[in-house]
Design brief:
4-stranded antiparallel beta sheet; 2 domains; transport; Alpha-Beta Plaits; 10 helices; binds adenosine-5'-triphosphate; single chain; alpha/beta
């Protein structure tokens, strides 16, 4: 669905040096980026501010022409065949609107139907389904300018789906939304990917979006790919330890546990946080604990996704 190889984009920026002199400098926003996304995948494209995410997205959607490299989306060169691509993909920019500000939401959708020449029956059924799932019915006749951010974002997502795209590209779709709106949108997108098989590529700073939606992550920093893989694999790679939290029936000291590298004791010896390596199974640690004390409750804690991504950035 997406093929990117040695993709590069440079910008020339002019900065003032001293009182009269200006200096031209080339900024390489995307520097030999490569990755592929297969049909049906949901991939998170993450990186710190200025990493090159939006620039990549703009090249994938044909808004920006690459300085060099290879890019194909749905088999076409986005910059050369932008119009054709627009009929096959949906794009949502959290910070920019594709809706007509003064028109009711319904009229914006109608206009987009005409732009994309969506057959009336397809349009009606897609609109009905999206509006129901995203609970937008009560707002269809409200001018876009009067919608809350959460309502508008749901509107943006509907607008991007009216022509039934194979791929949906989202740049910061949950930015500024409250927790409930975020959750509703994530649920909708997860269903879209699972039930419809729509491919998703999204950039976000909210790693809960990734946890909820994207089994795979492509991490970029300073224009280059730092890591690309399944979230679980990246977790195992950069965070080679997990924590077993055990609550004992009675306070006890635990000694000689297999694979346990460090421990922290709380509640006067009742709760133990045992950090163990991935070479050991949780079952082995648990049975060694159970041989020494009576266990009341336990949980295995994986490192948080924020921690995984922070460690990936730090590797640089
Ligand atoms: N039109 C432009 N002209 C000059 N420099 C630009 C332009 N667009 C982006 N850049 C620079 O390219 C780099 C990458 O920017 P980009 O917007 O792609 O990052 P990002 O990962 O999307 O960041 P953020 O998370 O802050 O949105 C930055 O250093 C930015 O200043």
């Amino acid at each position: 669905m997406i093929e990117v190889r040695e993709l590069r984009r440079e910008f020339t920026v002019t900065t003032k040096v001293g009182r009269f002199r200006r200096e031209r400098r080339v900024v390489r926003a995307v520097d030999d980026v490569g990755f592929e996304v297969a049909a049906g995948e949901a991939v998170g494209y993450v990186g710190p501010n200025g990493a090159g995410k939006s620039t990549t997205i703009k090249m994938l959607t044909g808004i920006l022409v690459p300085t060099s490299g290879f890019v194909r989306v749905c088999g076409v060169d986005p910059a050369r065949r932008r119009r054709e691509l627009a009929r096959r993909i949906g794009v949502v920019f959290g910070q920019r609107s594709q809706l007509w500000w003064d028109l009711p939401l319904r009229d914006s959708f109608e206009l987009l139907r005409a732009v994309y020449r969506v057959p009336k029956a397809d349009y009606a059924s897609r609109l009905r389904e999206c509006v129901d799932l995203l609970d937008l019915g009560p707002f269809l006749d409200t001018p876009v300018r009067q919608l809350s951010l959460g309502q508008r974002m749901r509107g943006e997502v509907v607008a991007s789906l009216l022509h039934g795209p194979e791929l949906l590209v989202l740049d910061e779709p949950t930015i500024g939304l409250d927790l409930e709106s975020k959750e509703r949108l994530r649920e909708f997108l997860a269903d879209l990917n699972r039930e419809r098989g729509t491919t998703l590529l999204l950039t976000t700073h909210d790693l809960d979006d990734i946890e909820r939606l994207c089994p795979r992550l492509v991490v970029i920093d300073r224009g280059t790919v730092l890591a690309d893989g399944a979230l679980d694999e990246l977790r195992a790679e950069v965070a080679p330890e997990r924590v077993l939290v055990v609550d004992l029936e009675k306070p006890a000291e635990l000694v000689g546990l297999p694979g346990v590298r460090s421990s922290r004791v709380e509640s006067n010896g009742l709760r133990h946080h045992l950090t163990f390596s991935r070479d050991t199974t949780a079952a082995k640690v648990i049975s060694a604990v159970a041989a020494q004390a009576e266990v009341h409750d336990l949980a295995v804690v994986e490192p948080e996704i924020d921690d995984v991504v922070r460690r990936l950035y730090a590797r640089r």
